[in-house]
Amino acid sequence: MNTKYIIWNEETGFEPGDLEEAAQIIRRGGLVAFPTETVYGLGGNGLDPLASKKIYAAKGRPSDNPLILHIAEKKQLKDIVKDIPEAAEVLAETFWPGPLTMIFQKADCVPYETTGGLDTVAVRMPEHKGALDFLKAAEVPVAAPSANTSGRPSPTLAGHVKEDLDGKIDMIIDGGEVGIGFESTIVDVTEEVPTILRTGFITRKMLQEVIGEVKMDPALLQVSPEQKPKAPGMKYRHYAPKAEMTLYQGEIQDVISHINRQVAQDVESGRFLPEEIGILTTTESASRYPVGQVVTAGSREEDTEGKYLYDALRRFDALHVKKILSETFYDSAKEEAVMNRLKKAAGQNVVQVESYESCNRVIFVSKDNITLGPMNEWIFKSILMDKEKEIMSRGLVVLFEEPRNMKVTDILMNHGIPCEEQVSLAFDPEEVTEETLIITMNFAEKVKVLEDYGMERNVYTLRELAGEEEEGDIDPPLGGDEEAYEASYTECKELLYKIKKKLQWR
Ligand code: TXA
Ligand code: MG
Description:
- By secondary structure, the protein is α/β, with parallel strands linked by helices.
- The protein is 32% helix and 18% strand.
- It contains 17 helices and 21 strands.
- The protein has helices at 18-27, 49-59, 77-80, 86-95, 112-115, 129-138, 158-165, 204-211, 218-221, 252-268, 309-319, 337-345, 372-383, 406-414, 443-451, 462-465, 482-503, and strands at residues 4-9, 13-14, 32-34, 41-45, 68-70, 100-105, 120-124, 142-143, 171-174, 185-188, 195-198, 215-216, 244-249, 277-281, 293-296, 323-327, 350-352, 361-366, 390-395, 436-440, 459-461.
- A twelve-stranded mixed sheet has the order 2-1-9-3-4-8-5-7-6-10-11-12, sandwiched between helices. A five-stranded parallel sheet has the order 15-14-16-13-17, sandwiched between helices. Strands 19-18-20-21 form a four-stranded parallel sheet, with helices on both faces.
- Helix 13 links the parallel strand 18 and strand 19 (390-395).
- Helix 13 packs across helix 17 (482-503).
- The longest helix is centred in the C-terminal third of the chain and has 22 residues, at 482-503.
- It binds threonylcarbamoyladenylate and magnesium ion (MG).
- Magnesium ion is lined by residues 145-146, 154.
């Protein structure tokens, strides 16, 4: 089949004759891909079972996955659904035209071929001038899934549709780049409490503001992996790029350092060539990755995280990268919509990046910096191979310089740990950089460092960082005999080994 390309332009609309030709293809049972504000759709006459069958065939899509009917005017709704619940009236009034799809009981005229055998039907009125003109001209409700081959990212450019469907459909309307970049929110209004089946640009909060209580399909919240999603399409592993993809979640500067370290390791070890590694980021941090194929998914500042996500995933495929490392784009305005797509692309492969990972200086903080602080300082120095790390100890109550507790020196010597002479030094916030890890002996000290000194990150108690409880204190063996000091030494050493492992330090 020869696919015809026509152009729709924001200012000038369709070329003369094009719109009528597109509408005729639909009425004659053919397929036309068209732009909407979310993603491109692959349209056919939604009341014609043969047209729906053609859509499934062109996409290579399982036919139990129902299609969305697109309408140009609200008054078309009553012809294709059995009844319109009150909540739906309100939602249509508020959000149509727009990126919201609603599920209704279907009218008899809607064939099961369109609804994947269900008695319900999905309906949406898009907010895209070209789409609305096309839908109006078609005169019938247009069934349209996203215009991609099943399993590939949804198309956000006509070029993506061409990649997947050229030669398989009658026409592609090229309307340039879409506005949102991911699919509409789906709400089931047949339920007593309207339920979100797919997250999107219209958030739960926005819905609740106009209709009150709104539930989430438990499958979206991943309460249990066996939970079957109510939107059949959500069960498929969508949007997956060919390369294995991992998401890194945490503070952005930590995530950037982590990804760069990972890439450096992969390249140095010879596991991957630089061009085999893909990095997914936003405009704001793209320049911070010196090695790898860097692709952006949108801009955090402009609030377009996710707009180019699908394009980025397709580009990684075209670049033949073997591995993708990605930032996470949690954006409160769009709630979970972008993260939901990202996680699917990454097969739920998410790594939490802790800010302490990039630290290069450790300060052990104790009360007077005479006993526990110095003891931990020297033990930690002795168990680290990596001498680049700067390890020190400071006290919170240091009025004058005092030499280290003699018994600590004895214990360290007994264990063959070299320790230079030292005197107590006061904790000084000036010594704390972005890459400093502060480890206190007890919880009260942690609170003091956070509150009195205004430190915001990388402050832990020794037990907490070792993976034990945050409020578990280490008491100094003051006044105790040699055995008490020995016990304290053993306790700290065990915790420090755990910390070393957790930090992945050598
Ligand atoms: O933004 C969008 O919604 C785009 C544009 C083209 O409008 N369309 C789109 O269609 O994303 P599609 O087919 O890729 O996704 C439709 C989703 C699928 O997950 C499907 O299972 C669900 O809607 N769906 C359709 N009818 C349903 C029904 N009766 N009950 C439950 N889920 C339904
Ligand atoms: Mg789709």
